[in-house]
Design a protein that fits this description.
The complex is a heterodimer of chains A (91) and B (169).
Chain A (H helix, E strand, L loop, with lengths): L1 H14 L3 E6 L2 H7 L3 E4 L14 H17 L5 E4 L11
Parallel strand pairs in A: 1-2, 2-3
Chain B lengths: L1 H12 L3 H10 L22 E5 L3 E3 L16 E5 L7 E3 L7 H5 L7 H9 L9 E5 L6 H20 L4 E5 L2
Parallel strand pairs in B: 1-5, 1-6
Antiparallel strand pairs in B: 2-4, 3-5
The chains are: A alpha/beta (91), B alpha/beta (169).
């Protein structure tokens, strides 16, 4: 439900003239709610930025999301993160 | 008591990817046909940014989110962007926040934002960030969509925020 709430909030904020990006942990819900720009991670709930104290992972995810605000040129795009849970190494 | 026990079981089950996926496929989400769009008109480094989380984050001295109503709580809490991490906590019984309790950045990436600002990747922070408790169902969805989400959007607009970064739990 958190992912739906993010999408609904995101839509409202975007419609007030503010560019938004949201993380999604449940792709199916984002596909239905249709926020403007979405970064999808196949991560467990409560771990949208990854593992605790993994600063490199958190920075990589955060900066990827920021860049989407500039790079996505049409509404409703969902970008799949390349960082697989427990597999990708952040150096 | 029974509700607490049921919640704990559900929270544990949703950590299993197969169950999470099955639930997501059957979840009756609020569907939309149109998609709002505000193109970015200036470089990120000149943009004022606000963070929003649905992870139930709030100041320790603020009112916790309502955990008694099974349909959730559509209200929000303001968090100053200058907040010290030791002054914030989580009230949200619908996901396992053991790791986020240790490192709030997992659902409220305030340190990643401050680091990005140090690197010059994004502009200044809004004075306030906002937090919801994402478990919002039934009639509370209407309150969220017709009242509280609009209020927050207005507050962000009033502060001349250019970009909003939203994180779920």
């Amino acid at each position: 439900m958190c992912n739906q709430t993010v999408g609904l909030l995101q839509r409202e904020i975007e419609s007030h003239g503010i560019s938004t990006v949201g993380i999604s942990l449940v792709r199916e819900i984002s596909e239905k709610v249709k926020p403007s720009r979405t970064y999808f991670l196949k991560y467990p709930y409560g771990h949208a930025l990854g593992e605790p104290f993994n600063k490199k992972q958190q920075a990589a995810i955060f900066e990827d999301c920021l860049n989407l605000i500039e790079s996505i040129q049409e509404p409703g795009i969902i970008v799949d993160s390349p960082y697989h849970w427990g597999i990708h190494k952040f150096n | 008591m029974v509700k607490d026990f049921f919640n704990k079981i559900m929270v544990a089950l949703y950590r299993i990817p197969w169950i999470k996926n099955r639930w997501a496929q059957n979840f009756n989400a609020q569907e939309s046909d149109t998609i709002p769009w505000t193109p970015l008109l200036k470089p990120l480094s000149h943009c004022k940014i606000a963070l929003l989380t649905t992870g139930g984050v709030h100041l320790k001295n603020d009112t916790p989110f309502d955990m008694k109503d099974k349909y959730g709580d559509p209200t929000y809490r303001k968090i100053p962007s200058s907040v010290a991490l030791k002054d914030i906590t989580i009230t949200h019984d619908y996901y396992n926040h053991k790791d986020a309790d240790k490192d709030i950045n997992l659902i409220f990436p305030i340190e990643a934002l401050r680091d990005a600002q140090q690197k010059g990747l994004v502009g200044e922070s809004a004075e306030f960030f906002y937090s919801f408790m994402g478990h919002i169902d039934k009639h509370h969805i209407k309150t969220l969509m017709e009242q509280t989400a609009k209020e927050v959007a207005h507050l962000l607009k009033k502060e001349k925020v250019d970009i909003a970064f939203l994180v779920p739990a």
